[in-house]
């Protein structure tokens, strides 16, 4: 093969990456079990001078009930205890791909009140010396079911809380057609005889990622979603974008700063989906985290934003507003919701390559309406852009192939004297104007594209369950019948047959090259089929270019002789 060192390095990097990912999953840091003191503080204490967030203080009493709210993209369940959103179903994102046998699979449930998958969006008010409903207080609602009607653009859900002192709070959720943004308005009416002082807060409370259940080893090793970030995130104009794994919640140095921050948001994110509270843009909030050790033994994690002090005179009214995003991590949507919310699309260190790749793919998808075809067109564009560079690589490899008899003669002349052998080879390359390192130049493009596209396929929700043709129903998942990995292996074998091993390669390297196709077949068994599709098409393009270059080079002497 004409790219021996390139492919060897590529294979080693890919294998090392897979091993590192597996090691992180099995032996990397996991959430720490908090002490009793830490866990008790999680639900009831906030840092600094913030009033205590305690159990329900005064107000309505009675039994909590669940309210269902449905729009064209969301189905929410609101618990009147605290007015918390405890379930959210993303109606346009099914758990499994739609098929003829199952045309309407269950939708993804992001917020969930189950013990293992607990994830809730909570909000409330706290007061140091007055009545205030926190996320344990019982609210009242006019009905138990709300639905966005045909032709209706917005839907309001009001929850009411009153206290004997005269304090009345109305918590209003407003949902919009086609939107994953929910407006929250906590309105306080001071019907008491004295000034009411308090603060509004919003928080996300979540259990750690449950251990996935797989039916076989292939499903386990090919599940790319488990490698994505799962934890808390926040952003402010002062602190910028930060991530915090659940295992680091007990490390003081990793916590959000205790000072007030403006223009920010807090969230909990996972592969493809996000829940985030976004306070008013000019509101100065304090961010904090907490750990809760529940009675059932499940540890839960909280990220919270607490607003500034509200001082409300008797007979006055005030509102505290915020937005809640519960939905897919769509870059065009997120960047409009809040500053840098699109950074939750976790491309990691490869962002500099992944973002442009995603942009080009999205443009091509608009033209073709098929992400697989978009990937094929991306390959063709990259090959056109690198045509001259690849030509130079093949020309150099072809010259080295023709030098093989002379290099074999040098081996016989110098025997085991490797130093003199290498020196003679360098002189021969210089005389014949051959650059043996030319095959490494495409590595500068191949490796970044490989990992950039890998992150795009792993973290871009648009490609989740995106079908191609035939048996490929999900480009973000492994090829279920291994057709693409086998095709790529055939392409590699054809390249080896077309371009024998480079002259001067030692026997150990020659043996390694024989196993290269098998090695790549095994590696690509577990990679997203969209990534393997990219390399199949890219391999075919290079094979055709290689064949054309060799044919032209072999025909040149005949033309000269004629």
Automatic annotation (TrEMBL):
Keyword flag Transmembrane: yes
Record carries keyword Transcription regulation: no
Keywords: Cell membrane, Chaperone, Membrane, Protein transport, Transmembrane, Transmembrane helix, Transport
InterPro entries: Membr_insert_YidC, Membr_insert_YidC_N, YidC/ALB3/OXA1/COX18, YidC/Oxa/ALB_C, YidC_ALB_C, YidC_periplasmic_sf
Annotated ranges, domain Membrane insertase YidC/Oxa/ALB C-terminal: 371-551
Membrane topology: Multi-pass membrane protein
Assembly mode: Interacts with the Sec translocase complex via SecD. Specifically interacts with transmembrane segments of nascent integral membrane proteins during membrane integration.
Entries under NCBIfam families matching the protein: PRK01318.1-3 (NF002352), yidC_nterm (TIGR03593), yidC_oxa1_cterm (TIGR03592)
Name the UniProt record assigns to this protein: Membrane protein insertase YidC
Organism: Dyella acidisoli
């Amino acid at each position: 093969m004409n790219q021996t060192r390139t492919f060897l390095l590529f294979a080693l990097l890919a294998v090392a990456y897979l091993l590192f990912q597996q090691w992180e999953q099995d032996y990397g840091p996991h959430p720490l079990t908090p002490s009793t003191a830490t866990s008790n503080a999680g639900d009831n204490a906030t840092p600094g001078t913030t009033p205590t967030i305690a159990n329900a203080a005064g107000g309505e009493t009675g039994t909590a009930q669940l309210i269902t709210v449905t729009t064209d993209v969301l189905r929410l369940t609101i618990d009147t205890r605290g007015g918390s959103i405890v379930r959210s179903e993303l109606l346009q994102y099914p758990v499994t791909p739609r098929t003829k046998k199952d045309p309407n699979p269950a939708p993804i449930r992001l917020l969930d009140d189950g013990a293992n998958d607990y994830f809730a969006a909570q909000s409330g008010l706290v007061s140091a010396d007055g009545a205030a409903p926190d996320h344990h207080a019982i609210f009242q609602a006019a009905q138990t079911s709300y639905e966005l009607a045909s032709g209706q653009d917005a839907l309001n859900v009001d929850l009411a809380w009153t206290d004997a002192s005269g304090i009345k709070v109305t918590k209003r959720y407003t949902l919009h057609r086609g939107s994953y943004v929910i407006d929250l308005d906590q309105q306080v009416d001071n019907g008491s005889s004295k000034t009411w002082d308090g603060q509004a807060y919003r928080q996300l409370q979540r259990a750690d990622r449950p251990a996935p259940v797989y039916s076989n080893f292939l499903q386990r090793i090919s599940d790319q979603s488990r490698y994505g970030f799962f934890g808390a995130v926040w952003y402010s104009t002062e602190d910028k974008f930060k991530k915090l794994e659940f295992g680091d919640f007990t490390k003081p140095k990793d916590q959000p700063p205790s000072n007030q921050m403006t223009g920010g948001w807090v969230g909990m994110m996972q592969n493809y989906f996000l829940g985030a509270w976004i306070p008013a843009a000019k509101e100065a909030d304090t961010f904090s985290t907490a750990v809760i050790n529940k009675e059932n033994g499940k540890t839960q994690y909280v990220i919270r934003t607490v607003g500034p002090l509200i001082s409300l005179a008797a007979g006055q009214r005030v509102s505290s507003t915020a937005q809640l995003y519960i939905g897919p991590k769509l870059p065009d949507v997120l960047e409009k919701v809040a500053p840098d919310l699109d950074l939750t699309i976790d491309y990691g260190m490869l962002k500099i390559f992944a973002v442009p790749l995603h942009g080009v793919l999205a443009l091509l998808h608009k033209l073709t309406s098929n992400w697989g075809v978009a990937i094929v067109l991306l390959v063709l564009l990259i090959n056109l852009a690198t045509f001259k560079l690849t030509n130079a690589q093949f020309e150099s490899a072809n010259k080295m192939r023709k030098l093989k008899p002379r290099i074999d003669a040098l081996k016989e002349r110098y025997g085991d004297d490797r130093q003199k052998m290498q020196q003679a080879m360098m002189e021969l390359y210089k005389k014949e104007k051959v650059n043996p390192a030319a095959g490494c130049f495409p590595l500068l493009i191949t490796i970044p594209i490989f990992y950039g596209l890998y992150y795009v396929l792993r973290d871009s929700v648009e490609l989740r369950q995106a079908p191609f043709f035939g048996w490929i129903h999900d480009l973000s998942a492994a090829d279920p019948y291994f057709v693409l990995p086998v095709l790529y292996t055939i392409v590699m074998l054809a390249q080896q047959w077309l371009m024998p091993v480079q002259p001067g390669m030692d026997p150990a390297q020659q043996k390694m090259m024989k196993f290269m196709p098998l090695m790549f077949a095994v590696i690509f068994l577990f990679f997203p089929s969209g990534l393997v599709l990219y390399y199949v098409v890219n391999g075919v393009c290079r094979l055709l270019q290689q064949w054309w270059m060799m044919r032209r080079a072999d025909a040149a002497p005949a033309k000269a002789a004629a």
